[in-house]
Structure prediction request, 182 residues.
Amino acid sequence: MKKPFVQIALDYPSVEEALTVAEIGVAAGVDILEAGTPLIVAEGIRAIGELARAFPDMPVLADYKTMDSGFKNVQLTKAQGGHYMTVCANAPDATVQSAIREGKTSGIQVVVDTIGVPQQAERAKTCADWAWTGSIFTMEPINVALTAPATPSCGSPRCFRPSIFRWESPPSTLKTLSVQPN
Prediction:
């Protein structure tokens, strides 16, 4: 059995808080740094670039939860030095397909997030069929969490606890699709 990949979701309202927790995560051995949706909303795409520059040896995932203009978020991720981006599985087919196409062109890995999809296995298979070359994969959260320490400002109500995701195999080499129901 392969060692699972661990991704830390940096769902913080500031780049400074995200960088502090990212440093702890990297020291703890996480494999992927996620610029979480709340971070991107609060700080813009610069958050992706800040993480990529601060941790040049770490893959950075931009968790946009893209629902339209999929290809544009792939381009933004590339421009900021990120490696992965998310598109919602329940987005229109054209959105998911445009993200996949641009990901193949640019080298950015596209993650289809099945959050909120009632028929996850069916939709995941459809998305995987569009990208049978392995440029797309799905992720599912598991019940593991890295609790952030109360420094420097993690005691504030604006500070979120990061989420941890487990990858059953390295995203860049995933050949098969397995989806577990909620």
User: Anything to note?
Assistant: The first strand starts at residue 5 and ends at 10.
